[in-house]
Amino acid sequence: MGVTTRVHFIGVAGTAMATLAAMLQRRGFAVAGSDAHIYPPMSTFLEREGVRMLEGYRAEHITADIDLVVVGNAVSRGNPEVEEVLDRKIRHVSLPEAIREHFLWGARSIVIAGTHGKTTTAAMAGWLLTDAGLDPSLLVGGLAANFGAEGSSYRLGGGRDFVIEGDEYDSAFFDKTAKFLKYLPDIAVVGNIEFDHADIYADVEEVTTAFRRFVNLVPRRGLLLVGADCPRAASMAAQAHAEVQRFGLGDTADWCASEVAVSDAATSFIVTRRGRLFAHVSLPMPGEHNVRNALAAIAVGAHLGVPSETLAASLQRFKGVRRRLEVIGSPQGVEIVDDFAHHPTAVAATLRAVRAAHPGRRVIAVFEPRSASSCRRVFEEEFAAAFDAADETIIAAVYRAALPDGVRLSPEDLVSRLHARGLRARFIPTVDAIVDTVAREARTGDVVVVMSNGGFGGIHGRLLQAIEHRADGAGARQVPPG
């Protein structure tokens, strides 16, 4: 009987790190990991998966029996465990290197990339292949509801295909190249390209360069799928050595969606392939952005031989991803929607989708500038146009308050820009005050859309409780918009 390989994760509580830790544990490795703060849902997930958790970063966590250390990109020099690993020259890798080494060399790698939509598209593609019996593996940056009662961010299948979300963020403190450059794409999807991750990219040209390098990795016998509705994504076709197929809502795309209609939060549309009818699809989620996501997933499935009627039937059973237009409750008839949106384009798409799914209802947007990009002033003008589909907008305090004044987004200035567009908006800094305000003012039939890429101080559960337990008739005093 062989000796069990022992792996230690530094920064294990991140979604991707925890997922990889669980995958290696399932593969028979002995896995442990440390983090500064380990709390639900990741603590619950890691415990359920049998991964040993160590609170805090301590040099003594790096024991003599460790064979490999996986270093998360949230840790850097000065971390006591990192320093111990370097001092003792223990074998260490980044997260994407570990994924490549242990899961991708022998797989047909299907890498879903793009500034927006990659988590949902990867979950869709993984579900379509699973439902068709191809038994793929899957790794995404969210909890896909079709995989397990509570959803899962991964699946280990016995088939050849491995569907993975390809992130353009950097890999580790010792490797500042994009993660997706490690993922050996046989099939690559580039849905869209915009300026994001302003903490590591100077401008959109640097982001585009990373995608060019990614596309250059697709082999001649592979497939590149590009979003035809995004000029930067479409331009990737010129970089390709593989077959290229385009998808989008325009009739010049190889994969085209038309006659898009939304009713009761479901979206129906017709899919044509190079001008010929391919399928009638009913997707149980709103938003044109999700139609594009579905087109990419359909194109992947079709390329692997899944029949059109199977793909359409599977999409109708797609349950979505946690924190992507997720309805978390409707206390006293006030619908609370949680969404991960944190880039201006994603915020606008989310609110348009909610508006389309709920015509005639008041939409209240609650936004926390939390990500490295949304906290920065460089996106302020774009954010001013992102809330047009909301009737009321509440901007919370900037999460990264330590950013310099000249760099940090000004919520007050953003609210002024929204007012200049004729929109109703307020800056309410604290979660306590936001909860009190929404609970007091929300009326039956309102849709409250909470957008943040983090925990937002537990605002979701607090809103549910505050609205559910408010005094009868509270909210009726709020004057209708306009």
Structural class: alpha/beta
Overall strand count: 23
What characteristic shape results from the CA principal axes? globular
What is the helical fraction, as a range of percent?
25-40%
The CATH homology group name of the largest domain? Mur-like, catalytic domain
- How many separate domains? 3
By DSSP (H or I, 4+ residues per run), the number of helices equals 14
Structural summary, described in words:
By secondary structure, this protein is of the alpha/beta class. The chain folds into three domains: 6-90, Rossmann fold (3-Layer(aba) Sandwich); 98-316, UDP-N-acetylmuramoyl-L-alanine:D-glutamate ligase (3-Layer(aba) Sandwich); 326-468, Mur ligase, C-terminal domain (Protein-Tyrosine Phosphatase, Chain A). It is 30% helix and 25% strand. The chain has helices at 15-26, 42-49, 80-88, 95-104, 118-131, 204-215, 231-234, 288-303, 308-316, 344-357, 380-386, 411-420, 431-441, 459-468, and strands at residues 6-10, 30-35, 52-55, 68-71, 92-94, 108-113, 137-144, 152-155, 161-166, 170-172, 175-178, 187-190, 223-227, 243-248, 255-263, 266-273, 276-283, 326-329, 335-339, 363-367, 392-395, 425-427, 447-451. Strand 4, helix 3 and strand 5 form a beta-alpha-beta unit. Helix 5 crosses helix 9. The protein is globular and about 65 Å long. Mean pLDDT is 90; it is low at 476-482.
